[in-house]
Backbone:
């Protein structure tokens, strides 16, 4: 493995960052871009945050949790309940009326967002103490149960004056301009900040402790890592970011119901994590954008009946997109278990070596072909 | 009093269906150490097979029942061969993800093939006749369900206890590798486990959907989860445990509904799961396993 020197890497990173920002700005200013591209980018960034936070728990700490949709629901509902403007509340809670203590509460967006994350983290802290003692698959089932409990409770009648029961909440304030920055960029900025925090976390001693727990709990304990404390921490941090992702999703959608956060959502995020590689944050980010773009945009044509001349292309009809999508996922799970990135993070060395390998492979093939051709002539 | 009797009957009936499905979970877990997330969806597919056979092909119910059970078994074994067998040496997390992937695929496939709209389950005339018990009245299927369930369970227990195949199954669930060294055909035993589990799920699906109005692609997911809770409650890996767990979950659910908290009946099931896991992680009849370093 060849290594690039520090200076080249710095330049490459700066160029890449500028290129990303320029592309984002172009996607905003260019009138040619479809609104599809914009919403795919926004949704992709939200899913990237959700997937990265799940990866922190599943891929880095080795705690297989299936409760992500529940924590996203907590974040989303907390945000929505606290930020719906006072004058629109009567319209939203038209059937049950609004709880008296909430009637005059309308916090600014950013505060609601943070409180949404904190609410998810607090619930995680309360539950974590009990649930984290469980071993692998039991933990998965317990967290799955928790997500269902959250979902049912949110839609239940005693909560109706807060969460509006099964009717769900609407008129949720979306992204707004921050100073001179247009609203379109807000999710990218929030997600970028959260991801940077996560990258810093996995590269410090806590992150290394998480990885040690993933590799071998007993060995990690023998090395002096406090298992309970680190597992608890990973669970809380992951839930915090899941809550933020949920709140962003609520902002993006503008209306939420308990059915916005089904078990299927957890599965979707899990599959993004698996495709990206369990234990690689950059893998999760890349695969989130790829998966969302494929699912919401590139594969859309599979849902519509198509004709070539008079001949109707078989199989294409509503629902086929998801079948194709799940088959792709099964293929990844069965034959490409490492996912895009495996456990490695994105690095310029990796990119450089990848292209070098490609080059030698290509060249190898050429020389081999030439040699074979020569043999045939003889 | 009449009401009480009716609730008891309903509780026993739903409990025995849960028991039938929970056996599928518990047997697969006992042998492969895998939570078969797709089991609830296999149960749902069984209902669609029945609709297909009876409504689309107009086959009489007693024949279509057999066709449906065989189709479900074939589906289950195929899933095992395609999605679980290649991952036998992989880490447990990979197999679990594969199981989740299969569940996702089955749900999407059902939505595609049969549309997301609920379909009416064909009525089997004999099962829907009303029976009177003093003042309480109920349909025959409610009475028949526990009887069929008990019959299946005793048959299964006899199979596991007294036959050579049963002995092989017990050996495999005790120790995978040693069993293999003793000349047991692991793959056959695993296939057999899936045959039994899916067969029982198919029987369960007839009994579950007959008194209910309709089938839809997500119909299997919640019952599947509840049955898994039942299996964990009784101690996963133990067949009598799954049966007891199934009855407990079914009874609790019915009584929550009786008290007027039907919204929270599912919450109660999951709370029960978490409480059991916290105080007795191996369930009522589960064996404790020491971790080897």
Residues:
């Amino acid at each position: 493995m060849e290594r690039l020197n520090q200076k080249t890497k710095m330049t490459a990173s700066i160029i890449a960052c500028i290129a990303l920002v320029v592309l984002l700005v172009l996607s905003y200013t260019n009138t040619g871009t479809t609104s599809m591209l914009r919403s795919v980018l926004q949704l992709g960034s939200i899913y990237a945050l959700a997937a990265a936070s799940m990866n922190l728990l599943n891929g880095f700490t080795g705690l297989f949790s299936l409760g992500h949709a529940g924590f996203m629901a907590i974040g989303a509902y907390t945000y929505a309940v606290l930020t719906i403007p006072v004058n629109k509340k009567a319209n939203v809670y038209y059937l049950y009326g609004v709880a008296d203590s909430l009637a005059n509460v309308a916090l600014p967006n950013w505060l609601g967002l943070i409180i949404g994350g904190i609410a998810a983290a607090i619930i995680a802290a309360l539950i974590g103490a009990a649930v984290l003692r469980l071993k692998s698959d039991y933990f998965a089932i317990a967290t799955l149960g928790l997500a269902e409990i959250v979902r049912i409770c949110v839609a239940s009648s005693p909560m109706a004056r807060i969460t509006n029961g099964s009717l769900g909440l609407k008129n949720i304030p979306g992204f707004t301009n921050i100073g001179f920055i247009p609203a379109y960029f807000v999710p990218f900025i929030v997600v970028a900040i959260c991801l940077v925090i996560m990258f810093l976390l996995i590269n410090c001693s806590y992150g290394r402790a998480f990885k040690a727990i993933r590799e071998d709990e007993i060995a990690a304990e023998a090395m002096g890592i406090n298992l309970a404390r680190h597992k608890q921490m990973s669970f809380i941090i992951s839930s915090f970011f899941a809550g933020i992702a949920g709140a962003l999703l609520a902002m993006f959608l503008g209306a939420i119901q308990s059915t916005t956060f089904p078990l299927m959502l957890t599965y979707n995020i899990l599959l993004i994590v698996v495709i990206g590689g369990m234990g690689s944050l950059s893998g999760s980010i890349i695969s989130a954008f790829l998966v969302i773009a494929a699912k919401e945009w590139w594969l859309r044509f599979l849902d519509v009946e198509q004709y070539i001349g008079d001949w109707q292309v078989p199989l294409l009809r509503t629902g086929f997109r998801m079948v194709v999508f799940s088959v792709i996922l099964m293929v990844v799970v069965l034959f490409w278990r490492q996912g895009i990135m495996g456990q490695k993070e994105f690095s310029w060395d990796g990119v450089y070596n990848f292209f070098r390998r490609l080059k030698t492979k290509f060249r190898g093939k050429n020389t081999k072909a030439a040699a074979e051709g020569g043999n045939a002539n003889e | 009093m009449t009401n009480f009797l009716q609730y008891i009957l309903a509780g026993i009936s739903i409990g025995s269906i849960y028991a039938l499905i929970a056996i599928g979970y518990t047997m697969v877990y006992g042998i492969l150490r895998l939570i078969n997330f797709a089991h609830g969806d296999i149960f749902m597919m069984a209902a669609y097979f029945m609709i297909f056979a009876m409504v689309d092909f107009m086959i009489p119910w007693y024949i279509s029942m057999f066709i449906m059970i065989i189709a479900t078994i074939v589906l289950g074994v195929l899933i095992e061969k395609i999605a679980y067998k290649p991952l036998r040496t992989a880490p447990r997390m990979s197999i679990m993800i594969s199981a989740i992937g299969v569940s996702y695929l089955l749900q999407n496939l059902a939505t595609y093939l049969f549309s997301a709209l609920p379909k009416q389950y064909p009525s089997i005339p004999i099962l829907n006749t009303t029976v009177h018990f003093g003042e309480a009245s109920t349909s025959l299927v409610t009475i028949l369900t526990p009887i069929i369930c008990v019959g299946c369970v005793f048959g299964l227990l006899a199979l596991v206890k007294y036959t050579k195949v049963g002995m092989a199954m017990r050996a495999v669930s005790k120790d995978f590798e040693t069993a293999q060294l003793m000349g047991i055909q692991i793959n056959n035993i695993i296939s057999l486990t899936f045959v039994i589990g899916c067969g029982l799920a198919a029987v369960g699906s007839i009994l579950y959907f007959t008194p209910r109005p309709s089938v839809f692609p997500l119909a299997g997911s919640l019952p599947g989860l509840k049955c898994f809770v039942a299996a964990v409650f009784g101690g996963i890996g133990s067949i009598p445990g799954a049966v007891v767990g199934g009855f407990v979950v079914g009874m609790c659910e019915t009584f929550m509904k009786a008290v007027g908290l039907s919204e929270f009946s599912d919450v109660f099931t999951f709370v029960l799961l978490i409480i059991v896991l916290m105080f007795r992680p191996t369930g009522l009849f589960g064996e404790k396993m020491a971790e080897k370093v």
Observations:
- The beta strands of chain B are 119-120, 130-133, 136-139, 214-215.
- Chain B touches chain A at residues 33, 35, 82-83, 86-87, 90, 92-94, 96-98, 100-105, 107-109, 111-112, 115-116, 221, 225, 228-229, 232, 263-264, 266-267, 270-271, 273-274, 277-278, 281, 291, 293 (CB under 8 Å).
